[in-house]
Records
---
Amino acid sequence: ISPNLVFCHVPGRLSLLSSTSKYKVSVGEVERRLSSPECLNASLLGGVLRRAKSKNGGKSLREKLEKYGLRLPAGRRKAASVTLLTSLVEGEASHLARDFDYVSKTEFPVKRLAQYTKRQHTNDKQALAAKVEASLKLVKEFQDLILCGPPGMSYEWEPGVDKDVFNGLRHFALVTHGFGTPTIVTAINVFHRYLEELLQSQDSKENDGGQMGNGKCSS
Amino acid sequence: ISPNLVFCHVPGRLSLLSSTSKYKVSVGEVERRLSSPECLNASLLGGVLRRAKSKNGGKSLREKLEKYGLRLPAGRRKAASVTLLTSLVEGEASHLARDFDYVSKTEFPVKRLAQYTKRQHTNDKQALAAKVEASLKLVKEFQDLILCGPPGMSYEWEPGVDKDVFNGLRHFALVTHGFGTPTIVTAINVFHRYLEELLQSQDSKENDGGQMGNGKCSS
């Protein structure tokens, strides 16, 4: 059975607007959640998939899983700690990461922080610039490296990527349902933009006050 | 009315275990959500507070708000874009950030990434070390700066913090309900640990494979 086949649809947990559609959960995703490192049991998987609590010990869930070639032993002990991330299906985790990326790009005060830092280094501008250039190189190298694995790339290793790096990133993606790496990327991008602002002229009159509006709500 | 007074309790949206308690929502938080930059309207605020949809155009919500000295004009246009972050109350946003921090500390493959990078720089170890030292300084300066505002600090400015920096961080905290800054800090800490690993001896046999287990689920 193809891992891309849709196992079920799940309503979002974080949707406020009624127009938000459900998230598709693929057979591949269910297989990932049942496997290491999470090893979800029937009760938790049922919760993730928003199924009503069953009175038959997860029998109907197991029956559906079997139809798709998936096994879930009864009485299984879950492996990973349950956190708030556990409840997210990959579709919603990805959506949350995208929204956080959007908000960080538009609302994080990169210019203000950089202007403050530049003022602290008025007497050693060149030393600061040298440190910034060095950091930009390391940041880029780190960014390129973390994009070598899922969820941006396949969950299956392909030649061209260091296996240890891939497996480490794959593990982090599995434990965070795809939320982790894009979120780390978002924050590293914020730091990257801050570094680039540090290289801008001290006299820049621009600031990101504009994004903050006038502090009032319109009627 | 004190902003610390509890306005209501709200069940978590991301809780899987039935033992998870509700989150307290303070009068101060409701006031923040009703003010700029979010300017929530009655419909969205009701959704955030998990109130049943009212048939009276938000009248009961307005009445409760008035009891606590809060005003919500009818027909108000919301200001900020609705994202998946919008639905989180500050208590749950903070809980999610803490869980993400825990998972990033324990499951992100810092050592593997650092070992790969060190192998790429076998011929310029000293140059790499110099770049790392420079980056560590800038990372620390950035970290110290972003911890100058909420949610770690009060939402009210206090002397000792640059006002522009504070207001910028306050804006980001308001738009992300306290989720944003701790999450940026988490990711910057990951990068910081990666940088420190780059300074460790090339011959280190340690790796973070242990955290990944043996790939099997126990019965």
---
Amino acid sequence: MKELFVKDLKKDMEIVDFFMVKSISVKTGSTGKPYLDVTLGDMTGEINGKKWDVGASDHLLKEKDIVKIIAVVTEFNSQLQLKIQRIRKAVPESNPDDVMDMKDFVKAAPEVPIAMYGYIMEVALNLKDEDLRRLCVKVLEDNREKLMYYPAASKNHHAELAGLLYHMKRMLMNGERVCEVYTNLNRDLVLAGVIMHDMQKIFEIDADTDGMASGYSFEGQLLGHIVMGVKYMDSLALELGFSQEKRIMMEHMILSHHYEPEYGSPKRPLFPEAEVLHYLDILDARMYDMEEALKITEPGGFSDRIWTLDNRRIYNPEK
Amino acid sequence: MKELFVKDLKKDMEIVDFFMVKSISVKTGSTGKPYLDVTLGDMTGEINGKKWDVGASDHLLKEKDIVKIIAVVTEFNSQLQLKIQRIRKAVPESNPDDVMDMKDFVKAAPEVPIAMYGYIMEVALNLKDEDLRRLCVKVLEDNREKLMYYPAASKNHHAELAGLLYHMKRMLMNGERVCEVYTNLNRDLVLAGVIMHDMQKIFEIDADTDGMASGYSFEGQLLGHIVMGVKYMDSLALELGFSQEKRIMMEHMILSHHYEPEYGSPKRPLFPEAEVLHYLDILDARMYDMEEALKITEPGGFSDRIWTLDNRRIYNPEK
Amino acid sequence: MKELFVKDLKKDMEIVDFFMVKSISVKTGSTGKPYLDVTLGDMTGEINGKKWDVGASDHLLKEKDIVKIIAVVTEFNSQLQLKIQRIRKAVPESNPDDVMDMKDFVKAAPEVPIAMYGYIMEVALNLKDEDLRRLCVKVLEDNREKLMYYPAASKNHHAELAGLLYHMKRMLMNGERVCEVYTNLNRDLVLAGVIMHDMQKIFEIDADTDGMASGYSFEGQLLGHIVMGVKYMDSLALELGFSQEKRIMMEHMILSHHYEPEYGSPKRPLFPEAEVLHYLDILDARMYDMEEALKITEPGGFSDRIWTLDNRRIYNPEK
Amino acid sequence: MKELFVKDLKKDMEIVDFFMVKSISVKTGSTGKPYLDVTLGDMTGEINGKKWDVGASDHLLKEKDIVKIIAVVTEFNSQLQLKIQRIRKAVPESNPDDVMDMKDFVKAAPEVPIAMYGYIMEVALNLKDEDLRRLCVKVLEDNREKLMYYPAASKNHHAELAGLLYHMKRMLMNGERVCEVYTNLNRDLVLAGVIMHDMQKIFEIDADTDGMASGYSFEGQLLGHIVMGVKYMDSLALELGFSQEKRIMMEHMILSHHYEPEYGSPKRPLFPEAEVLHYLDILDARMYDMEEALKITEPGGFSDRIWTLDNRRIYNPEK
Amino acid sequence: MKELFVKDLKKDMEIVDFFMVKSISVKTGSTGKPYLDVTLGDMTGEINGKKWDVGASDHLLKEKDIVKIIAVVTEFNSQLQLKIQRIRKAVPESNPDDVMDMKDFVKAAPEVPIAMYGYIMEVALNLKDEDLRRLCVKVLEDNREKLMYYPAASKNHHAELAGLLYHMKRMLMNGERVCEVYTNLNRDLVLAGVIMHDMQKIFEIDADTDGMASGYSFEGQLLGHIVMGVKYMDSLALELGFSQEKRIMMEHMILSHHYEPEYGSPKRPLFPEAEVLHYLDILDARMYDMEEALKITEPGGFSDRIWTLDNRRIYNPEK
Amino acid sequence: MKELFVKDLKKDMEIVDFFMVKSISVKTGSTGKPYLDVTLGDMTGEINGKKWDVGASDHLLKEKDIVKIIAVVTEFNSQLQLKIQRIRKAVPESNPDDVMDMKDFVKAAPEVPIAMYGYIMEVALNLKDEDLRRLCVKVLEDNREKLMYYPAASKNHHAELAGLLYHMKRMLMNGERVCEVYTNLNRDLVLAGVIMHDMQKIFEIDADTDGMASGYSFEGQLLGHIVMGVKYMDSLALELGFSQEKRIMMEHMILSHHYEPEYGSPKRPLFPEAEVLHYLDILDARMYDMEEALKITEPGGFSDRIWTLDNRRIYNPEK
């Protein structure tokens, strides 16, 4: 059983525990001698390690292997680093102590994917507008499998297992309230907009089933999820027989949800539901990033500068 | 009784009705002849009018008088304009037909001021943090009289009777939900921030008891309501014995709520509650401006360009 | 026969000639008297006129009527204006002198539409890549009718009859050369990009058969011709069986041809052919606007400030 | 006695001399062996050094210790570095050679603090406006102790012992002249503005008595010295019984002295004295940074890029 | 003798006095009747006037004529305007009352040109660097005649008779002080930079001997006074045998004195003397514009928005 | 004979071949031991190498030496690096195997300098305008020697032997076509503009005869090639007796060819020929940079981020 997590490591600790290999290679040191350079991780973070003499079996290790290590925590350039004495692959088949709960090794949204999916599907099923209801239900069903693990970003906010579902769910929760406060809003349009706005991230980002992104797809790089989303919406609207107005309004909501041209939206929101969609989106992203920053900041202290928050350093109150 | 409102006027209508004088002066025409130039209004908007021969009694009319007019609606430079044949002051004392409901003449928030005030006070009374509760209750009590009619702006969003209360109330409604969704938030801080953030608009803007602003105060122009709000918070925190941390965090929330330096916040929000405050504020302002724009836009059409919405033209769906 | 054109009018001229009504309405003067306010035009420009006493027949005039006027050229606010004494509709059926060549009244590209169309189709037919050839030929055929008259803009560059064809043709001429100079370019991609890049302006702009735009379509306002063009390309590529790479590259060329996010391209060009497409486009637009400006600028003088050229005043050499 | 200063070190020098420890730690090399990593400094600058075998006494060294070293100057990544053979703490109590003049080790303004303070107090005492005179005298007296050593910045311009006094004094010298040239200026307002504008840097920056800043205070980070200065001015004005106009004008001068919103001033200067204050401030900062840059630039050469001067490289003439 | 000045006119005054014709034309009113449209001015400002029946002699009036008028001050669009009853040219030859002091009619720097010139020449003659002394003396002598009346701008700051001399003189006064405060500065370079920096405004702007600019020269529009100044400096340096370093440093000072690329300086200042030159320049321009604004602002009030001051409204204290 | 080029090196290759020394120094390793740090290059690129034990003869090697090495290709920080076992200077005098073709070692334009020069001179000789013809011929003759090898930049586009000629030639090729398409252009002006626009790069950049820049000249840093080019044009125009208009138009073309103030042009193009010049320039620069990027990018992959292309990653199609 895993006992110690990356976020709890401190300088000079001597550790014997299991981690996942995030990246690994044999490098040549400044004196010409080879050494093993490996990044290890678990659900709480990542740490780099070095092993100064490379054994034959070390060459066989690869990304996503679960390994057991004996190491000391050192510090290099004010970052913690592992000086690894031994490393070996876990063999759960033959060694009961090596049987691991895989969830310990993967950063994941704090709620169960199927529950979040259920919440979102419930919202979809209760939309009053029949077109939008059919649209959302279909899209959720068609993409069910990938939604179960897809992150909402390759890094930054919601880059985690089922991060996209988590992002949608919390936006829906706020969106429902906003429609109660601003009663002139078309509730169905707001909620369908939330469900559709980032759906093509599934095809913009390349990710595997543990929710880790490895980069962007070819179409993602040349067009981006916003324009891909407009095209997707267009073909669905044709298929489902939307009116022209409803089709174009949904496409516009997707197109404008980043708000500023320099963030990828060539049109700014031109009706209140599109405006609301943007603010639900940005608020959720900011809350996520701030929560993450504060998780690793001492009470009464400031976080490091956070790039996605315009390099702000976030304050964690003493309480 | 008033029958016809500004928003319902159409070209070529012949009208006999009551309006409030918003501004009035005798001007000299291009041929050197004097004429009466008057802006009339009611709770739905304003319209300019001309009277081509000026009578002796016309010179006695002044701002805020309720007047009865006989006029024809014409068009000049694609704007409606009244060609006034007769105008006289209403005399409710002597003429029962001239007795008016003053609410018809003043743009006002759609809810009753005392009810909104009650809602907000209720929130304040239920804050768990004793310091913040005492702060909010005191501030609401101290400014009770002015809150009953103060607008939240001299023009643009919430420039109407009790607009500031309406702005606070709707922000609180959303704020409560946001604290349920993002459970790490300090609810008291968010809600106290909402109550305090614009309170000094009462001293930044010069307004009269019908909620109409006539301009900015001297201190408003040289310092602005944000910095005035920080000073106000500072003296209240000293008086109420806040801890340094609580005092400075509240001041920071006021200081940062416009988010961008170019909009008046020299510091960006540095903790999640300050971040949320900004988004509650901007969302409410945008919803207000869009609602106003759509009130006078035909279904299936676009509004005029709206300066406070970056010159966007807002779309009103056909339904 | 029309003898005098708008661009040749000078102050104090007394004129008797034919013009097209561009807009017309009866307005009320500052003294309350009605007058006729009419904008007249021909292929060289437009001029405003006033008729101070309105006759019964004046009410029957409407946009696009050809009218004969008797008038004096005056100046108002440093702009020429017509003081119209008489105005009547042309009756070519009954009056031989009223038979006009409609080309005199409509601003048009300087080349014959069918010839320009032929040039472009020739380019399309000679593309070596079979997919791109079929694409371009099909698109040119499908949109043949509208291309014969569509402008390339609602105002600014190429806002004229067949302006879109003219824009495409001159870009192709330069594009062919650029591919000779930079031999690594994929010539078919560049030329197909030119043909496709603005094709959806036909659906973004509302224009009539004399090439005059009356505004933007609903989809044009909410999505814009760039995103519409990507969707159009997508459906054509599916229909014609393009490879994924070729489809996405063509979509990217359309998406990125305005280059800067603030001009509507969420992605900048990511390969040389897309880069070239942008420069062919902008160069042609700039040359058009400068030529237009210099047409009405005296040798040795500067034009007025031109909005589409960043408010520059363009110099016309003395020669 | 200290003989050699950091700015005079050259590659390959063998040195035996005294320096102050600026930071020190024991690190682990790439081969796993510990070494001593120490930054040494004196009034002319700082240099990093390494000692490859760590002795027991090395662990006892700490920041601000004066140490004697034997070392060779080497070069690493085009920066000078010390290869330290021996290092020991100075013991002035027992070793006469170890008695040092502490001024050699601390970067300081080029004038004596008490003399600069005297100059500024003299200006304050001669203000004609009684309110402003009492304000400035009180503020100078109340903050006398800290002014003797406080820097004007944590890094960049005037980050040195008594740098704040030096900044104020030179601004006052120029300010007096400017008031002679622009005779409409209110001289008292300009000079009081100079004295007050940065006073809260004393509480924004955390610094010790040798003028070295260790960072920003909590209030400094959340509010900044400008807003803190406005609050400070406000309470002083109340205490001293200023008129509303005088109070607000002084607060505005502090608020606007950074001029641009993005540099921390939510309001731009709104009267000439506030405008002048800004230019006195920026000129003094720029002159300071350029002088510093040229001190370490060869005649006929360019300095490195200087971040506070928009990355310019400053030229030092050959003379 | 002139008794009433433009800045003292108030609504409803009846006036009989002399003014200078700034522009004049016969226009056609909205009813088709001609009227005289004339702008009149004196050293304190300008005002527009209308004369509703045009006499034969009115056609003979032209720019710069001194005229005597009988008129009433009216208000149109919240601007004062003259309703002129009679207007005639002054005939000082035959009518002693018509003999005017021309200084009353021309906006001029507040000091005598020859005295300012003398001050500047004195500075030039006392430069220690022989090259710079010869340069400045020569340039002042060569341009003596035009300097006596040239404005420093076509509008905005120092657009007045001898405004360029006034600008140079006040910059020199401050410059001398700055060199005393920052003793590392090369005083000769700073002062010669002041004298040379705007000298080519004499050829960039077209102005007549009363200091009124009529526009920009051809070279002024295509190159601008900064680049023209660099060329001028270059030829003078060659003629006077400057070293390469001195020549290029002087050219750089001229080139960089507007500081920001968007204000015309392709290079930012790269040594302290060039930096100082910029701040002397901008400070003098700002002080001038603020003084002008406050001359026509009531104590306790704000000026109109001033374009050259980023649309700020400047406050005039109550005193 | 050289067999292996930098661009073809792969990890783990063992190589024995010739390279040019680009930079060389003896450094001290982290353990205090000296090693040889050398950058080697050829016409296809550069690579860093280390030699861990330094021999006596190694100290004699210097920049531009041709050396023969025995080495292994390793990887350090994801960059290839040579681990050099032996290195010696080539001695072509005594060793026939050491005779090298120098072209293998220098990055150069893909066409023969004299042929490009001939093309450009041909264009110059065929200009119809006698002044411009004499200008261009003279300038080409006067700078013939340097043009044969000068790069067009110190890094970025056309930083290679005869890069300036190559840049001019390709711009001329496109320029000729553009003048055929836009027939109102003054062809002589466009082509003379191309020839003159960057000519002063010869004096802005310090480069040696193999086309490698070592930095910028003093005048280059303080004025830049644009302003230097205007001065150069000015003196030539005086010498050749140009009309004022022609002189200033040519100077303006040089001045405005970077288009944006922030890229060094204080004036934007004010006539079509200047506008065209800019687009010919930028298109050629962009094509060059993209070609270079794609040379080292796999088909179907993206290049690294390229600074001169706004950090875009360029796509190389699969074909």
